[in-house]
Amino acid sequence: MIKPRDRLKTLTALRNRKMAQSAHAFVRGSTEKFYEWLESRTRCALPDGPPVWICGDCHLGNLGPLADAKGRVLVQIRDLDQTVIGNPVHDLVRLGLSLASAVRSSDLPGVTTARLLEELMAGYQNALEGDFSDLKDRDHRPKVIQQILAQSTRRRWRHLAEERLDTVEPVIPLGPRFWVLTERERSQLVKLVESDAIRPTLASLKGRSKDASVALVDAAYWRKGCSSLGRLRYAALLRITDDKESRICLIDVKEGVTAAAPRAKRAKMPKDNAERVVAGAKALSPNLGQRMSPAKLLGRSVIVRELMPQDLKLEIERLGAEEALRLSRYLASVLGRAHGRQMEDKGRAAWRSELTKSRSASMDAPSWLWRAVVELISLHEAAYLDHCRRYSLSEAA
Questions:
Q1: Whole-model pTM over 0.85
Q2: Domain range for residue 87?
Q3: At residue 202, does pLDDT exceed 60?
Q4: Is residue 331 domain-shared with residue 285, that is, in the same domain?
């Protein structure tokens, strides 16, 4: 059983082990280094896009099916910890780097990477043409996306409970993923869900009246990926009761932290990190944004989010060449719509025009994207090997 005082040490070890598993996993876990390298090492200048809400950490695992409050599913950005009003090109480069590293991990030839970036740009630019309903691409979804969407729409509460909790009973079992709370943590979570500031929002999660009662059934500290490291992170089961019936829902309570992504000059954003994340989610991923609320817990800003059975992440470890190209084009179109719906027609047209510059006669992807991704791949590869060496030495000690 992991005690509260041992959380940081245990989470650090888990993060280091996870990032040593593959170069692609290392890319996903090195957001801060991405921006450090992008600022200090890239030899080519990146274009300045219109300031909009960006994901800030747009890698492959941060996109996937998301349900809205009524259970309708679309592929959108699913993690907005790093969201800021910034340069949309940062999301493009980050997604390009993630896809390119996945291609490298799949032992595909370098020519696939070149074609992948061409498809990335084509999908993104086409999405800026003006249809932001998220439905225009329905006939162009690659097979892997069709499969995960079909899986998503079939899922119900029991699937979420079995996957997250290993049980369909209204209890959070302590073990490798869920750790014991302190008495203070539990009492503060009870106050949070019953407070007038957030109870009405929680009460309406299952389509109930905002006057419905909310009670904490069970809760635990949640060891979830690398995102729990050094921050508050809890899973909580709630019972929501009105005149009709009583229902259980699972919520994620996650501390908002300072974003590593650079923000646009003079951008007006909430200073509170949780409020910033919720605002970014509403702009970029409406399905997710309508299920999130900022709150305060233990003197820190937290985001409270209902977890839906239909929410899934893209777990793709190996790709075929043609599959990689179709996936690149599709995910870039998801990103393009998320950015484009925030722009005026004139701004979108100017941004599309800017993105077509610096193309060579033999390659559709602009030279700045190619150079940035190639350089970042080499930098990440060197850092990944160094991380593996340090991890190996620490394990041997």
A1: yes
A2: 4-154+312-396
A3: yes
A4: no
